[in-house]
Amino acid sequence: MATSPCSSSGVSSSSSSGLGADAGLEIRTRSVEQTLVPLVSQITTLINHKDKLKRSDKTLQAIQRVGQAVNLAVGRFVTVGEAIANENHELKEEMSVACIEARRAGETIAQLTDVASLDHPESDSHITIFTDRTGVVKAARLLLSSVTKVLVLADRIVIKQIITSRNKVLATMEQLEKVSSFQEFVQIFSQFGNEMVEFAHLTGDRQNDLKDEKKKARMAASRAVLEKCTMMLLTASKTCLRHPDCESARINKDGVFHRMRLALEQVIEIVTDSRPNGENEMAPISIYSGIKEFKVRVEIVITNCHSKEMLLNELKLYLLAQSIFPDKGFSKFHTQLRTVNEQPCLVSFESQNQKTKDLMEDLEVAILKTCQCMNELKREVHSAATSLAADLLKYHTDHMVLKALKITGVEGNLEAVAEYTCKLSEQKEQLVEMCRLLRHVSGTEPLEITCIHAEDTFQVTGPQIISAAETLALHPSSKIAKENLEVFCEAWESQLSDMSTLLREINDVFEGRRGEKRVYLSLPRPGKHNANLKALKPVKLDTEEQAKIAKLGLELHLLTSDVDSETEKWEDQENEIVQHGQGMSSMAYSMYLFTRGEGLLKTTQDLFHQAEIFAAEGTKLASALHAFSDQVPDDDKPLLLLEAEKMISMCKQLQITAKASVQGKSATFTKV
């Protein structure tokens, strides 16, 4: 199927200064995002200058320097864009228009910020950033939009390279499918191997560049299929060439080719963000996601007295859990949920004769009881699923069925092979069911996708082992048929090993050790800093304040992701710099959760205490960097020391802010 590369990365974000890029664009890759960050930062500096700024020579010179820096950066950027346009004629027109717009906008910003030589920058005779703020905003918007378009068009070229590489692989696969001699097969397979290596490099880079963790997981699954199927394709094709009249050998080979084509197609769907026939991706339903959604809605449901709707949601969860684990006795949760459900309406009907304070206390109790009940359900479901999975994996570690198939195949014992293929089919069904159970308790969307991939692998590999065993039983002296069965059995064993790793990761996420950020040891414990909690009155933020806090929290979250990706690159995870970096990232993530009303930081006092610890950890990191600088080449050492000094200064400022005493909603909000 021909796929257009037109749905690429783009932008659909805006800054607090009102800078919005093209609404039809959305950033989907880290490389595009990171290229835009410095430009957005410089432009935001210009836009957010105070209207009544003291216009000293120093200020005017700083504004002009920023404007010139933006223009120079855009000029260099456009030069690269124009070179790309000349090399890719199908995008030349669009790229050229975007480059012209970007260059024009950069020059406009340079003109509007040319204020250092003016005695009166607000003079009517010369339009500047001080006299035409709207013009600067307009030029900035045009600049961001056009630069983003250039990046998106450049990204399309990357997508085109992946599609072209996929098409080469498909064309060579068609040749391999039709080949009739060993000599010809060896020549074409050599070419196929080189093309697969190129495709693996391109898709690997793309996988690492993707921002969406679900797409990353899907890409990883597809690439894993292609990697494992390459060896299967080799032995299955050779077996078919050796035994051209063997039906089971043909079925075995066809299965490999079919699976590789599906995996190639999925890679292109992810890269182009499209699905065949315009289908929408259906999100899999799991108990965990149902519980999570329910807990988000519970407060709204309770306060609005939608007890019937609430009960229906709970019963759906209960029935789903009971249908999956019929022997685990979830009736106690059903009873608890029904009891809690009756509470909200009782409160609402009696509220006319109660004080507001009493009403709020009753609602809080109802919410807490409901959430506690759902947490217990979640724990029970997790325990049941992981225990069953662990027992099943332990039971199948000896691979007795696979060993028996190899032995009976070599013996040419068709009857025994048939007996053991039935046992393998039963094992396959058990493992498929295990994957489905683990998906319900996976805890994160990427792990959920990994469970689905594992399920598909068992579904497909089981029948392929059977057809390979039947081929060997029909041709017991065939070395290639024996080798082919070995390859498929190794794939099965490898997937079982992967399941053990997956089970550990699911348990780690549930325990908070991985996947979600681990809890940092210096975090305030519930109650430790909450001595005056009852005296603190909750403050209702207005919409603008909520939006500002949410935006800052999201920026913090993105930064923690960047830190984590960098620390993971270090081979020595016990290194002092890595540990301080990971500790700060974990604390910053807790602050992000605070902006969402989640996590261990419950009050602003908790947040301020965490900020003090965060600053102290930053000071330790700066000290470690100073010590590490002795190992850095002379050319890089000054830059490292400069960053360390900046860090110390920022940590001191953060500590001062965190310790400063404030009163009132406005002052507290500003401090937060």
From TrEMBL:
<dbReference type="InterPro" id="IPR036723">
    <property type="entry name" value="Alpha-catenin/vinculin-like_sf"/>
</dbReference>
<dbReference type="GO" id="GO:0007155">
    <property type="term" value="P:cell adhesion"/>
</dbReference>
<protein>
    <recommendedName>
        <fullName>Alpha-catulin</fullName>
    </recommendedName>
</protein>
<dbReference type="GO" id="GO:0051015">
    <property type="term" value="F:actin filament binding"/>
</dbReference>
<keyword id="KW-0963">Cytoplasm</keyword>
<feature type="region of interest" description="Disordered">
    <location>
        <begin position="1"/>
        <end position="20"/>
    </location>
</feature>
<feature type="compositionally biased region" description="Low complexity">
    <location>
        <begin position="7"/>
        <end position="18"/>
    </location>
</feature>
<dbReference type="InterPro" id="IPR030045">
    <property type="entry name" value="CTNNAL1"/>
</dbReference>
<dbReference type="GO" id="GO:0007266">
    <property type="term" value="P:Rho protein signal transduction"/>
</dbReference>
<dbReference type="InterPro" id="IPR001033">
    <property type="entry name" value="Alpha_catenin"/>
</dbReference>
<dbReference type="GO" id="GO:0045296">
    <property type="term" value="F:cadherin binding"/>
</dbReference>
<dbReference type="InterPro" id="IPR006077">
    <property type="entry name" value="Vinculin/catenin"/>
</dbReference>
<dbReference type="Pfam" id="PF01044">
    <property type="entry name" value="Vinculin"/>
</dbReference>
<dbReference type="GO" id="GO:0005737">
    <property type="term" value="C:cytoplasm"/>
</dbReference>
<comment type="similarity">
    <text>Belongs to the vinculin/alpha-catenin family.</text>
</comment>
